[in-house]
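user: Here is a favour to ask of a fellow structure person. I have my own habits and do not want them to colour yours. Could you put it straight underneath, so I can go through it closely?

assistant:
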Amino acid sequence: MPIILIGNYMPDRQESMERFTQMLSNGFKKSGIKTEIWRPTVLFGKFSKSTTTGLGKWLGYIDKWIVFPIQLRIRSKKRAASNLRFHICDHSNAPYLNHLPANRTCITCHDVLAIRGALGYADAYCPASGPGKLLQKWILKNLRQANKIAFVSKTTLKQFQELDSDSSTTNKRRKVIYNAFNDKFFPSEGKISEKILNKTGLKLHIPFLLHVGSDLPRKNRRLLIDMVYSLGARWKGSICFAGQPADEYLLAHAKSLGLGERIVSVARPEHDTLVALYSRCDAFIFPSFSEGFGWPVIEAQACGAPVIASNIEPMPEVSGAAALHADPAIPEDFADAFLSLKDSFTRNEIIKKGIQNSNRFDSRSMIKAYLNLHGIQS
């Protein structure tokens, strides 16, 4: 009973979605299910260096929303066997549902942040342009029509239900399936992590706080700087931003507070570097204002890092009460939580419970749940 995975347009470089797609593909194959990945072909997008801004964005739209739907119709008709299943791996591609058999197609909804932002919800921290608002409303319309949707957290399901006026009157399947790890995360041994991190620019004799993610406003990276400033002489370590490097505005803010020399960026770290960063940090700080799931929380826990995260859902849901939580609008709250880790018992309990919590996100359980959603016995 093959499953065709609908992946993302490669020039958009949506790395987390690509990892999720590959994770599903590998998991299904291990369960004895044949899989293929179909994704938009890069045709018009070849004529631009970037498909995320300017003219290139519109050329990418032609590939994604005009050419690929035609390809989907042709390819799915050629493979019209009744047992063929389809899985749209990214909810942003929900409009492809119009070109696939609805009763044999599932969608994974990773968040509704962009949709809520387009509808004017300020707490989504995802403002949208005029065309962006139209796109998100189109995505929402198709999500509402989907027969089978998996949501990566209870919070995301709840937020969707608030937007779906028909959800209480239909028999459509809406199921929470937590993400699993997309790679191996574990406490890295001291000598191994030291060897890896010596290449990053971190001074390993100086403790550091870690943030992993992008520079999107909702990630709230500025809080780490304000948090360290509020700590004053009580902590003299560095701040490491892994993922996108600290931008000029973040660096200017740090410099204005006298912390410019304490900022280190590790751009797009390789996986072994990421594991070493999680394993070696004094604490992992995740002060997001909005998330759909929050993969870094469980990654840090699995590596033995004490986690201090936002008290806004789904962070507490995902952390499993095995992290410290604070108000992301109040740096002093994060500073107080961090200082509580000076107590060795508190620190060790947070680490132990974090590792235990990370065991919940098992890939076999996730794949079994997805096969069940597809109506396939595993």
Q: What stands out?
A: The mean pLDDT is 94.
